[in-house]
């Protein structure tokens, strides 16, 4: 499926420039990048733009930033996607800077295994669509997502942008339905054949599964999302300060 790229923001352009310089060996592994001030001056951008570009590279495992030691190059190409978990909002959010590829969509029968696995409410009719996310320039998907919606909200599938986004926010924008409660479940599983093919991994590969369940003000379950992350491609990271 052909996807249209969004316009490139200034920090994304700078991140691409730094990526190319690192990949070319201009900055060797273990050495420090120029300071934020130096990069801002040489590239004629703001320091805020530099910080966003560095955060982008850090999320891909290419650099490490530590106060007092500067920014150190740790890889010449993207390694993993890191997602900070410092709040409930972060746990409900989806990674930015990724590209979305829509895969399949259709009704879900109560007799389907997926219906029971997602623990859907039998009082409603459900629709499911799936997609996978990739980092720009990287072939291997970082995640595979299944979205289960009450059929009356199924049209939001058309609203999913190339860069992805939280589907519950699309439901809210189109239908005015705000989640009164969100329950997050996290577990591990070996993927079946369908999910393995979507992730380009072997059947049975270990993954992390995050299920998000959204209910409205009347307590009605209207959306379930199932996100699956294969080993070695995605890192959740949280920092606790005393």
UniProtKB/TrEMBL annotation:
The keyword Nucleotide-binding does not apply. Residues 8-76 form the HTH gntR-type domain. Gene3D superfamilies: Chorismate lyase-like, Winged helix-like DNA-binding domain superfamily/Winged helix DNA-binding domain. It holds the Pfam family UTRA. The keyword Transcription applies. GO terms for molecular function: DNA binding; DNA-binding transcription factor activity. One of its GO terms (biological process) is negative regulation of DNA-templated transcription. SMART domains: HTH_GNTR, UTRA. Keywords: DNA-binding, Transcription, Transcription regulation. SUPFAM superfamilies: Chorismate lyase-like (SSF64288), Winged helix' DNA-binding domain (SSF46785). This is DNA-binding GntR family transcriptional regulator. It comes from Allorhizobium borbori.
